């Protein structure tokens, strides 16, 4: 095996070890790497995963980081992205389900336990409103 392949295997192994405890709480996967389109608001996206996390259907966004991100605020604009995906799924006729929750999972190359950041419906709604403002700013500039 080439040195590069061993190195890549080690990185993958680290990420898998990192998310292992989160995967135990995920079930009923409904979509993986799936395109979404909000026709009314005219934006597209690619959702990593839609599945149940601890019994709640969520848009799940997998992230990697060199630095620990133990709090949702450490993920910067990722919650806006999740809210945008939820909005798109809920308005896309290709999906026969509605999503109200989000989950951002930050995985670490060194195998440290991933930080799962659950977004309940109220939090998703707050970020949806922030997303709409951001989208409006973008539309006004372009």
Automatic annotation (TrEMBL):
Gene Ontology annotations for the cellular component aspect, listed alphabetically: mitochondrion
Keywords: Exonuclease, Hydrolase, Nuclease
Organism superkingdom: Eukaryota
Coiled-coil blocks: none
GO molecular function: single-stranded DNA exodeoxyribonuclease activity
Statement: the UniProt record of this protein carries the keyword Nuclease: yes
GO annotation terms (biological process): DNA repair; mitochondrial DNA replication
Gene3D superfamilies the record matches: 3.90.320.10
SUPFAM superfamilies on file: Restriction endonuclease-like
Positions of the PD-(D/E)XK endonuclease-like domain: 36-131
Protein's recorded name: Mitochondrial genome maintenance exonuclease 1 isoform X4
Organism per entry: Lepidothrix coronata (blue-crowned manakin)
Originating gene: MGME1
């Amino acid at each position: 095996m080439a040195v590069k392949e061993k190195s890549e295997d080690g990185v993958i192994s680290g990420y898998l070890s990192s998310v292992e405890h989160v995967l135990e709480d995920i079930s009923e996967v409904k979509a993986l790497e799936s395109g979404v389109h909000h026709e009314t608001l005219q934006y597209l996206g690619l959702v990593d995963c839609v599945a149940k996390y601890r019994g709640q259907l969520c848009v799940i966004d997998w992230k990697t980081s060199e630095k620990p991100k133990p709090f949702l605020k450490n993920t910067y604009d990722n919650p806006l992205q999740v809210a945008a995906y939820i909005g798109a799924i809920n308005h896309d006729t290709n999906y026969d389900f509605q999503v109200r929750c989000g989950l951002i999972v930050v995985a670490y190359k060194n195998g440290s336990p991933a930080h799962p950041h659950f977004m309940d419906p109220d939090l998703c709604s707050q970020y949806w409103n922030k997303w709409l403002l951001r989208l409006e700013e973008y539309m006004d500039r372009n």
